[in-house]
Amino acid sequence: MPELLSVKNLKIEATSYPPGEPPKVVTLVEGVSFDLEKGKVLGLIGESGAGKSTIGLSALAYGRGGCRITGGEVLLNGKDILKLDRSGINAVRGCHVCYVAQSAAAAFNPAHKLGDQVIEASLRHGLMTREEARKRALYLFRVLGLPDPETFGDRYPHQVSGGQLQRAMTAMALCPNPELIVFDEPTTALDVTTQIDVLAAIKHAIEETHTAALYITHDLAVVAQISDDIMVLRHGKTVEYGTTKQVIEAPKEDYTRALVSVRQTRRDEAADQSGTLLEIEHVHAAYGNGFKVLHDVSMHLPKGQTLAIVGESGSGKSTLARVITGLLPPTEGRITFDGTELPKALKGRTHEHLRRIQMIYQMADTAMNPRQTVRNIVGRPLSFYFGMHGAQKTERVKELLDQIEMGSRFLDRYPAELSGGQKQRVAIARALAAKPELILCDEPTSALDPLVAEGILNLLLKLQEETAVSYVFITHDIAIVRAIADSVAVMHRGRLVRFGPKSKVLSPPFDDYTDLLLKSVPEMEIGWLEKVLKTRRMASAGN
Amino acid sequence: MESGPITGPVLTDAAAGETPLRPADLSGVPAKPNPAVATGEIGGTFWRRFIFRRPLAALILQRLGLSVGLLFAVSLMIFGGIEALPGDFATTYLGQSATPQAVENIRRDLGLDRPWSERYLDWLGGAVQGDFGTSWASKNSVSEQIGNRLGNSLFLAFFAALISVPLAVGLGMLAVQFRNRMPDKIINVISLAAISLPEFFIGYLLIMFFAVKWGVATFPATVYDSMSFAERLSAIALPVATLVLVVLAHMMRMTRAAILNVMSSAYVETAELKGLGTFRIIARHAAPNAVAPVINVIALNLAYLVVGVVVVEVVFVYPGMGQYMVDAVTVRDMPVVQACGLIFAAFYIFLNMAADILAILANPRLRHPR
Fold first, then answer.
1. Fewer CB atoms near the end CB (10 Å): N or C, chain B?
2. In the predicted structure, residue B359 carries a pLDDT above the cut 80
3. In this protein, which residues make up the domain named ABC transporter (chain A) (predicted)?
4. Comparison of pLDDT for B363 and B167, the residue scoring more
5. A286-300, pLDDT tens digit by residue?
6. What b/e readout covers B63-74, taking b as 16+ CB neighbours within 10 angstroms?
């Protein structure tokens, strides 16, 4: 039987225009080959820049933003789609092969109803009548577990949640009954509890309709649940290609082994609970329009330890950080820092208050002035808080750069000349420069690739040992909590659900929400998804 | 003594000053109403609740209120500006025989000896009721004279808009479909040429070819009450063609830019990956989201059609508002200048307000709140 999709020796290039230099041709993907049978799922996995999306889009003969497919063959049912003309390729797209984008929020047209967009391709390709397409959409909305499937299609994209949009996007791809769907990180932008629903819905829908899929992700644990084969990519080349079982359980290459073992940093919680640094008591907070975002939140953090705040987006965890810094004064409650109460608003705080609490942000990119060198970025708090200047300041900046394992050769680099991980390290150095007692880390690793994120976490742990600094670590990733926290606060919809030492919070008996949160985190184990869904079904049957 | 039409440039400055602001202003229409800003302006919990429940109605009411406020501010500026002009009607009118006594007499007759605040309130009170006083030069009612002239100007502007707007949007979409290929380049070059030539030059060119050489068009474009509708249309053919050529390029290029901007969005990629044809992608997926900036530039050009036709009216000897105002400025006939200024400003503000409101209505997030 011929393969459904057979990619042979694919080569993709793009032209880059570095400022002040002649244009360069960059090879993004080289020598990639794979086969996909009908109804099977192939997972493409790798870090950002590995060329996964570019390869995925080649199955639709599409090059994004100046990418060109310059070599190889993409055979769909034995026919090379790269050789088709414009109308030939249009007959393949949206009919035989469909695409699910990472950000459904951006991929849906804001001006049209969801239902119309879901059935558009089926109608345009003349695959079914409007009535048939509507029925199929309704069926798919049901299969994908969307609320009120009858009226769901009448809504506009901004009227439904992110998880629902992602499922609607899957419905849009499934609607024309394609032979192949390319899923491009369909769950990456979602919360864990939502991710598992979408993942289950996608898996169910693929099985139900016998559609083959290319599943692109950077999360090996996710791809382990859904794919039959896995291809590991790095820098546009194949690292390892095999069945899911073989890649997960017996990886051959070092890189794959590193990916599989990435979540294994562990740290035991500190036993010593003496000397409270930060105490948050009955804090309430609201936005300017009166919308309440925090309800009666209390927690505390001992000196030299790490408090992890976990929750989904919208749980109020970042807001809590803004309240601690004084950017958003609480409407009620008090915050005590090292024995004295902090003035509520930023304006009322002294220089010294500001120095002792520093922040690290999720997007190091936007948190640094792109027109300042590393020397200026890290040096600024030195002159601001300690009045340092000249050689003394440079010396201290060098020390800090050594501390973050980067070294003085980065002194005169601009942020644009640094990688994502290096930028985050510079942001950490900037926070350290103030000699703070508390650093608020707002998802500092969630925009980074797993191996890089691991490096940042290890650095933070090392710095804590050296300087006895305390961290409030905001994250949605339970694995990180396990790795670095001493105490944990679980937040949900602006309320504190659970708080205590890590060992207590993360072990049973659980409250409902913490249970859901913990069980939603994908584990690198084949069949984990089925197991979770089964226990869930049993639980709901028992109710 | 100075004798140039100083009011002219002042007005067009106000118009030109607004131009670069428009696109930014419209893109700033909030996706969600910002209650903090709105309450800051109007205050009160009722308004706050109203904004929350009926964001669309609240935004539109806000725009209406702003427009009225703006019109008052403009009336004050027009009056103050004319007050501050050197020279006055009396000295211009009397010319050589301007003895201090004669000047004083005329000033008293016209009520110019009263304090300016009193005269302003008088004038504004009348203007609100549609009475702009009496022309100093002709002693006729300003409102009556303007009534005729405004009708003529609107007649001209209406037909220019009727032709130029669909043409501009159509050409803009065509240019996008053939982006960077021959049709796009031709459209671009021609529109650039049209936008670069001053309107009087285009007007004279058209007169030379269509009226003088080939004799197919009517010149001058003067219209009379006794003319039939068909005669009027034939009379205004050349001025309309001139106006269309002048405003077309701006609207066309803006349409093209707005659609191209939308074409790089993720949802257009989605449409491409559905295998849709280029035309359907442009018309169904790009155009509805490019509407807001396009409406804006259309409104701006419509305002120009009404307000900025002065030169075209003069070239074609067309009895519209523009010509009337220019005549009044040269003799310092202040009631007429003030009335024309206020009406032009009202048109400008009204059209921009309409553009804002349409852009708000075009935003699905505001039309269909959660």
1. N
2. yes
3. 10-260, 278-518
4. B167
5. 876 677 889 999 999
6. beeebeebbeeb
Angle, helices A114-124/A162-174, rounded to nearest 10 degrees: 20
Does B289 sit within 8 Å of A110, measured CB to CB?
yes
* Rounded Cα distance, A488 and A494, in Å: 16
Asked if residue A348 has pLDDT above 70, the reply is yes
Tens digits of per-residue pLDDT, B208-236?
888 888 877 777 777 777 778 888 888 88
A108: which chain B residues are within 8 Å (Cβ-Cβ)? Answer: 267, 270
Tokens describing residue A317: 């965890």
Q: Is the dihedral of CA A379, A385, A391, A392 positive or negative?
A: negative
Nearest C-alpha neighbor of B75 from the set B8, B121, B24, B26: B121
From A91, which residue of chain B is nearest by alpha-carbon distance?
B275
On whether the CB atoms of residues A31 and A98 are closer than 8 A, the answer is: no
Contact between B284 and A124 under an 8 Å Cβ cutoff? The reply is no
DSSP state of A295: E
Angle between helices A450-467 and A420-433 (to 10 degrees): 20
Contacts for B206-214: CB closer than 8 Å, 24+ residues apart? B206/B238, B206/B241, B206/B242, B207/B238, B207/B315, B207/B316, B210/B238, B211/B238
DSSP 3-state of A318: helix
This model of the complex carries an ipTM of 0.76
Could you say which DSSP state residue A112 is in? Answer: S
List CB contacts (< 8 A) between B273 and chain A: 60, 62, 93-94, 98-99
Asked if residues A366 and A309 have their Cβ atoms less than 8 Å apart, the reply is no
Question: From the candidates A62, A100, A114, A158, which should be mutated to test the interface with B, based on the most B CB atoms within 10 A?
Answer: A158
- Considering only the beta carbons, identify the residue of B266, B275, B364 that sits closest to A158: B364
Token digits of residue A453 = 């994120």
Interface of A with B in 139-198 (CB under 8 A): 155-156, 158-159
CB contact under 8 A, B272 and A289: no
Cα of B365 to nearest chain A Cα, Å = 7
Check residue A258 and give its pLDDT: 82
Locus of tokens 């039309």: B367
- CA dist A436 and A443 (Å) reads 19
pLDDT in tens, B330-349: 777 888 888 888 888 888 89
| Interchain proximity B365–A158, CB inside 8 Å | yes
Query: Do the beta carbons of residue A317 and residue A306 sit within 8 Å?
Result: no
pLDDT over threshold 60, residue A243:
yes
Domain extents for chain A? 105-170, 276-512
Q: Indicate if the pLDDT at residue B91 is higher than 80.
A: no
Do the Cβ atoms of A307 and A472 come closer than 8 Å? yes
- Output the six-digit token pair for B283: 């018309």
Please name every residue paired with A146 in a beta bridge, in sequence order, or none if there are none.
none
Is A93 near chain B, with CB under 8 Å? yes
> Of the candidates A266, A262, A181, which has an alpha carbon nearest to the alpha carbon of residue A5?
A181
**Which pLDDT band holds residue A266 (cuts at 50, 70, 90)?**
low
Shortest CA distance from A99: residue in chain B: B273
Q: Which two tokens stand for residue A134?
A: 């509507």
User: How many Cβ pairs within 8 Å bridge chains A and B?
Assistant: 80
Residue B106 CB neighbours (<10 A): 17
Which CATH topology does A276-512 take?
Rossmann fold (3.40.50)
Look at residue A430 in the predicted model and tell me its pLDDT: 94
The arithmetic mean of pLDDT across residues A72-80, rounded, is 90
Tokens 């562990």 sit on residue? A266
How far apart are alpha carbons B226 and A375 in whole angstroms?
82
d(C-alpha A375, C-alpha A379), whole Å: 6
Distance CA A157, CA A160 (A): 6
Rounded Cα distance between B366 and B361, Å, is 7
The amino acid at A171: A
Nearest-Cα residue of chain A relative to residue B281: A109
Residues B342 and B350: their CA atoms lie apart, in Å, by 12
